[in-house]
Amino acid sequence: MKTLKNRLNKQIENAYLLQGDDLFLFDKAFAMIKKACNLTMEDFNFVSFDDDNFSVEKFLDSTQVLPLVDNYRLILIKNVTKILTADLKKIVPYLQNPVDSTIVVIYDFENKFSLLKDYCQFVDCKRFDQNMALAVIVKELAKYGKQISQDAGLTLLDCCNGYLTKAMKEIDKLVYYDLSNNMITKNIVEDCVVKENDFVVFELTEALGKKNVDKAIFLANYLGKEQGILSLVSNHFRRMFFVSISDKTDSEIAGQLNIKEFAVKKIKEQSKNFSKIQLKKIFALLDEIDYKIKSGQMLSDNAFMFLIMKILYI
After folding, report:
1. Once rounded to an integer, what is the mean pLDDT over residues 253-261?
2. What is residue 266's predicted lDDT score, i.e. its pLDDT?
3. So what's the pLDDT on residue 142?
C-alpha cells in the first residue's frame, strides 16, 4: 500500500490490476486511487462493471467517454468472474494505447484477468504479514480512542485467518465491549470474536500434536456439529503430510496445493508438533477411514471422533 501511495503521488496510471486474497486491501487500494483522481462529478465520471452489466464492448465504449469538468473518468471492474480469454485479448490493444483521461481499476480476486498483468500497474492485495496487519488494526482502533495489547491483536488476526477484511468487522464489536476501558485484551477478543472454522481446525490440530486430550476433545465436540468438518480436518492433515516431506519453496508448495503462502507457513509451523512417522500414519489412517465410509463399514457421523481419538494415541 505504501508503494501504491508513493506512485500515486508522482503519477496516476491508466490501468490498475488488483490481485490478492484480502478484500479490505482491495477497497483500501481503490480508495487511494479514487482519491488521487479527485472526482467532483462522480455521477458522470465514475462507472462500475460487475457480472450483471459487464461486456467487453460496453467496457471499451466506456473508456472512450471523456470526463465532464474533472480531469479523469474512473472505471471499476469488480466481481466479474465470467470472462473468456478471447475477451481479454480484445482489451489488450486498448491498454497498450489508453485514453489519457480514463483510469481503469480491476478487482481480480479470482485471477481471471492475469492475462492483462503486463499492461497494468499491479497492486498486491494479499494478506499482510502479522506485523503490518497488527499496525493497521492499532491505527483503526486509535480512531475510537482504543488500544489493543499485542497478544490480543495477534489472537484477533488468528481468529480471522489473517484477513483484515474480517478483523475490521470484528473491531466494530470490540470497541463497544467495555466503554469504561480503553485497552482491548486477549480475553475480550476471545469473548467477542467468532472464530473461523479454519482457525478452530488449526487449534484442534495443535492440541492433537501436543497431546492435550481435554482441549482436543472439547474442540472436536465443538467442530463435530459443522457440516463437512471431517473433510476439512482430513485435508488439513493431508496438506501437513505433503508439506513435511516436500523440499520445495513455500511459493511452489502453495501453487501445488492451490492454497496461499500464508497457509503454507502456518502448516509448516504446526507440522513441527508431529514427527514424519506420525504424519505418515495419520495419512494412512485417513485412507482407511475413507475406505470404511465408502464401503459402509463406518458411518460418516462417527468417523470424525474416531479420527480424533486415533490421532491422540498415534
Report:
1. 84
2. 84
3. 95
How buried is residue 88: exposed, middle or buried, by Cβ count under 10 Å (0-12/13-18/19+)? middle
Entry field: residues in the chain: 314
Question: Nearest-CA neighbor of 74 among 145, 140, 14?
Answer: 14
- The model's pLDDT over 285-301, given as tens digits with 9 standing for 90+, comes to 999 999 999 898 988 77
Q: What CA–CA distance (Å, rounded) separates 201 from 232?
A: 8
What are the strands of the beta sheet with 15-20, ordered from one edge?
46-49, 73-77, 102-108, 15-20, 121-125
**Confidence (pTM):** 0.69
Beta strands in 98-211 (DSSP E): 102-108, 121-125, 147-148, 183-184
Closest CA to 264 of 279, 231, 242: 242
237: its cell numbers: 492433515
> Residue 88: what residue type?
L
Q: Which of 138-142, 161-165, 201-205 has the highest mean pLDDT?
A: 138-142
DSSP 3-state of 64: coil
Task: For residue 117, give Cα distances in angstroms to 98, 124, 175, 188.
Answer: 15, 12, 40, 43
Distance CA 59, CA 54 (A): 7
Q: Which run of H or of E encompasses 45?
A: helix 42-45
| DSSP sequence for 66-127 | PPSSSS-EEEEE-S-----HHHHHHHHHHHHS--TTEEEEEEETTS--GGGGGGSEEEEESP
Cβ-contact 14, 100 below 8 angstroms: yes
